Amino acid sequence: MSRPVAKYALSILYLLCLLLQSSYTIATPDTQSSALIIFGNNNLPPYEFLENGAPVGANVELWQRIGEQLGRAVDVRLISWPDAQQKLLAGQGDALTLMSATPQRSLRFDFTEPTFSVAFRFFVNTAQLAVFNEHNLSGQRIGVTAGGYPRLWLNDTHPSAQLITVDNHLEGFRALLRGEIDAVALLEWSGYYTLHKHGITSISAKPSPFVRQQVGIAVPKGRPEFVRQLNQAIRQLKHNGQFDKIIDRWAAKKVLLLSQRQVQLLYGLVSAFTLVLILLFALLLIARSRGRRLEKEICFRRKARAQQQLADLVYQHLSEAIMVTDADNRIININPAFSEITGYTRAEVIGQNPRLLSSGQHDEAFFQAMWHDLNNAQTWKGEIWNRRKNGDLFAEQLTINTICDATGKIHRWVALFSDITDKKASEKQIWHHANFDSLTGLPNRRMFLHRLDQEIKKAKRSGLHMALLFLDLDHFKEVNDTLGHAQGDALLQEAAKRLLSGVRETDIVSRPGGDEFTIILSEISDLNRIEQIAGLLLKAITEPFELDQETVYLSTSIGITLYPQDGVNIDNLLKQADQAMYAAKEQGRNSFYYFTPQMQQVTDSRKRLISELRDALHHNELLMHYQPIVRLDSGKMLKAEALLRWQHPTRGLLDANHFINTAEETGLINELGAWAFRDVIRTKRAWQKAGHRTVPIHINVSPLQLRKQDEVNKWFELLAAQTFPDQSITIEITEAVLQHPDTTQIELLPAFQDHGIQVALDHFGTGYSCLTCLNSFNIDYLKIAPSFVQQVKADSSEFILCEAIIVMAHKLGIEVIAEGVETPLQRDLLASIGCDYGQGFLFSPALSPSEFENRLRLTPAQL
Q1: Residue 438 in contact with residue 422, Cβ under 8 Å?
Q2: Which region, left, alpha or beta, applies to residue 62 given φ > 0 means left and ψ of -120 to 50 means alpha?
Q3: pLDDT tens-digit map of 57-69
Q4: Could you tell me which of 85, 527, 642, 734 has the fewest CB atoms within 10 Å of its CB?
Q5: Taking a C-beta distance cutoff of 8 angstroms, is the pair 95, 230 a contact?
Q6: Distance, CA of 764 to CA of 291 (rounded, Å)
Q7: Alpha-carbon torsion 58, 61, 67, 70, what sign?
Q8: pTM
């Protein structure tokens, strides 16, 4: 096929690609009741991307075909790459496309056979093509997309490069043309596709890819049958040629015709040798008689035939495979080694196109680079993946040479290749054994030290913090001694999985040896996040380990050190993390300890507060104060809010702001809330027995308490045992309960009103008020937040907002309480716009039970 015709055909194919539209939801009326949910990347043309709001791409068509093979409807959803992984791990989908199988990912996912082989190249300004050195990136400004593999690979291998995040491929090329960056690191196919689509001709790719990856389909662990079905569907699509058709439509794929210079030289040598013999015999025949000339000519022919037979013998017995194609991309000759490697006989391949060997592992960009080399240098050398007749993939070391005729036109392509599959597998296995722990699959000490060095450099470059966690399993030796090493190994494997599930994918978990683990938390902008992660890891390890017939309980001690606060080199950081770990063990194990003194002081203070708060429950240090709520139109006290106080033995009387957040974080809020409810009931019962008038009491309830239905049922039982009138108790909840309610909370709110308990919505107006929730839930009172009330002035925006809230509430049959009233002006303004109740220091501070009881002795007229 001539070059102009080939280019014309490619253009037609490419236009068809642009016109092709694919639906992401494949409706099939078959056996399954629900569609397979597949997640993918929303910005990776031409594999998968959104075009005019509709998902398209080669991988979309592939999933269409897979769905037809499986008899299942398929719903492929394109979102950001990090969100796709999180949703899959959260159990919201069935598979994730275009994902490489790394050791850490293999602990979370199972992978199918590869569907694509992707390579990454540096794209640079054509004028700088010869100047840009991809092997020395020190100080170079490299554009990368967020979350992409080029970014991760460059971080590990070229930490001195300056990585600059670009939103997408096109924005990266525009930044390159503006001179803002020196190169863009992108997928080959994606880069070429974007350049061609937008008509950019002043950007070129470096000839050789800097890394190549096999990508397939990721499936959450525990679905081996699903993985088997996917593999079967993928093989069938590749076998019947549908896979290649998809590639052709989206990539306008050129089919490679192979050639080989060694065979050309071999035949050339034979021809040259024959020519020399002819000349020699011609000279002899001229010098001698014509009779002798005939005799010599016969002898020459015999020798030439022998030489030809020798060349054929070499061709037939060469251990490397040879394939010769003509100018029309048709195979015209092979040697036996070709059949031995590929499984195809001579009769099966003669006249065929070389694409019958295609594995589908290489994209169009790979072949474009190959053709670039062939067109310019008339030779190409490299590694390529092909497929045998039985469907097995194999790697080959390939050399292609071009043979031209006397006019300079292409006459033949000759390919010489050898099978290097076993060699590559051995190299990969050797590298993996040298860098990863054989038991857990985590990086070993050697790889960990390499990664730590890279993360230190990255943290220095970015200016962000990095944390090193050193973990040691408490009492692990006892498990080994009592249950044996086999059970101990099983425990270490499960512990590794739990640690991986407790960190981000960008964090690094390793096992240097024994029962020790190390974790590198990279790019930490919020130091509080370190403590949260450490807490999750402690909780994960304390969950029981089920080992055959045994249940084992374990804990871990964690030492934490920070870069650059605690040290700037590997030795110091390791030493300090180790010291902090032993300090955690000395503190009683099952805890974490900071090497940094300042952070440790904060942790110690928090631990002390938690311990003291637990003691307060048992030492009768808690008490309730009561703040009156008055009717604004009459000034009479008709209600009160119960407020929790802590009579601390050394710090004096503390209000709830000093400890309520810690109580919620640790779960103590449930015990505190239960105590507060019981104490209010006990106090009201005492007031009733003393003959005082009944005043409804408001009690604050945390959203966490509403998740404990058994505990709330106890409140109902306790209240039912009293002789209080209805609506003697009102619970105050925050807007968060209504904006994100779980099932238990939705069921409990109506139950409160069924038991004669009213509901007040506290601090209304802060954040994003859930106005639509007021119709969905029966709310009795709205409490306007103090931040609004204390800013109320005539004609102020706060005054207008308060008036709007009051009008809206009254329209819905809800009464309004203004919190934080401190001045007569605030009281009068609120009363003028119809506010029902007021609460604040203008009327009274929170009173002790005895002080509030004195108020109850007063008659309404005295109030």
Answers
A1: no
A2: alpha
A3: 998 999 989 999 8
A4: 527
A5: yes
A6: 123
A7: negative
A8: 0.42
